Amino acid sequence: MTDDYIDIHTHRFTGRGIELRAAGVHPWRAAEIGVAESLSPAMFEGARAVGETGLDYACDVDREAQERLFRRHLEIAEQRRLPVVIHCVRAFEPTMKILAEYRLAAVIFHGFIGSAQMAERAVAEGYYLSFGVMTPRSPKTVAALRSTPDDRLFAETDDSGADIERVYAMIAEIRGTDTESLKRVITENYKRIFDDENQ
Predict the structure, then answer these.
(1) 126-140 residue pLDDT tens
(2) CB-hemisphere CA count at 13 Å for 69?
(3) φ/ψ of residue 62, rounded to 5
């Protein structure tokens, strides 16, 4: 497994390395009639995680509908003891408040774009942060990446079309390490979450 790159969140599966399979309904679809109520545990059969799910206050989707859908995902994740992959845009405080109400196997903020202070708060709760190709565009997110402890770190391609190898190289350069060391760190984090009990 240490020879593989781990892509913790992708929309473009390549079949190379380890690409996390998650199931869920994106918050952009939250206002669709009955979408929150239609989620059932059966939808998550075979999934290794729930998501992506969360809150996006930059879009025009009704916030109450987003919260209903988010909570339904979290209920299922709690029941099935599955990790959750979080989508959070301009909604860090409400997201953190809602997450605190549930006992979750693990929480991974995908495509983290917050500040170092936000990263510190998420890490203090035991959450993981995943970074991707958007990271270098924001100095505050670069600072967050630099400050994230090794044992809370993941990498992803999301919907970028970038190779996961490129993302690892970018993260390693920002953190002042090498790709092989980063692979070992991320592999250990993956094993911590997706051990035999969660398989």
Answers:
(1) 999 999 999 999 999
(2) 28
(3) -50, 130
Amino acid, res. 118: M
> Distance between CA 98 and CA 94 in Å, rounded?
6
* Alpha helices per DSSP H over the chain: 35-38, 63-80, 92-99, 116-124, 139-147, 164-175, 179-193
- SS3 state of residue 98: helix
The pLDDT tens digits of the residues spanning 71-82 come to: 999 999 999 999
Residues 6+ apart with CB under 8 A from 82: 44, 47, 48, 49, 50, 76, 105, 198
Residue 55 DSSP SS3? strand
15-19, 128-132, 144-148, 152-156, range with the lowest pLDDT: 15-19
C-beta neighbour count of 121 within 10 angstroms = 15
197 or 74, which is more confident: 74
| Residue 38: partners with Cβ closer than 8 Å, 6 or more residues away | none
- CA 157, CA 136: separation in Å to the nearest integer? 14
Per-residue confidence (pLDDT) for residue 3, from 0 to 100: 64
Starting at the edge strand that comes first in sequence, how are the strands of the sheet with 84-89 ordered?
22-23, 49-56, 84-89, 107-109, 128-131, 153-155
